[in-house]
Automatic annotation (TrEMBL):
Residues 15-228 are annotated as: Phosphopantothenate--cysteine ligase. The gene is coaBC. GO terms for molecular function: FMN binding; metal ion binding; phosphopantothenate--cysteine ligase activity; phosphopantothenoylcysteine decarboxylase activity. This is Coenzyme A biosynthesis bifunctional protein CoaBC. The chain holds residues 177 to 404 of 406 of the full protein. It comes from Entomomonas moraniae. CTP binds at D102, K112, P131, D132, I133, L134, F149, K163, K167.
Amino acid sequence: IANSFTTKALTGKRVVITAGPTQENIDPVRYITNHSSGKMGFALAEAAVEEGAEVILISGPVSLATPDRVERINVVSAQDMLVACESVMPSDIFIAVAAVADFRPQVVAKQKLKKQPDNEQGLLLELVRNPDILATIAAREDRPFCVGFAAETENLLEYAEKKLKAKNLNLIVANDVSNPAIGFNSDDNMITLVDRELNTTRLALTSKAKIARRLMELITSYYLKETH
Ligand code: CTP
Ligand code: CA
């Protein structure tokens, strides 16, 4: 019989979730970013609270309200996001939903870049690679159970499986972002969860809130299987 003392599956567990885009500054007034809205990561944070977890949501710049009982840390760049993630380790589960910018300008100009006689033909912006936050967390000695998201426009499952292996993850969520009805700014989503044995579970097109609840249940049951 359910009562108010029922222990939820993730009671006492810490879940860290990254969400949203990152912003990489070019100069004081310009930056590079992407179309991530943060909706999926925020919905997962809410679902993790419902499983009883202590939830820390590390978010890039988005315009979303923080779900109840979620501790939110706001960051701007990929480097900031990595520092924030490391500062809340160890954790039991790490879910990387953020669309982290893969590259950032090599130098951030101190002053606004001006049009000059020497850039009449164009401007070459030198970019360097950002750290891979998920791979860095998954390589820790005290590594949490790690879940990644693979946003792809082609060869969805093939690329997702490669990322699962390359980053040494427990699970990866394959997300087809070529379809404008799902992914990024949409309220709906459709995903395929892939485990280390390459078993797949498809979650059909529905709201991000419903997908998040079902996905969090699946992540929880994989996590419990692995740790018991
Ligand atoms: N990720 C991350 N840090 C990065 C890049 C990606 O933590 N610097 C995480 C994302 O949050 C996601 C997963 O890695 O959970 C896969 O991200 P994705 O952009 O699909 O893959 P990449 O490894 O960056 O490869 P590519 O963009 O070249 O497909
Ligand atoms: Ca990427």
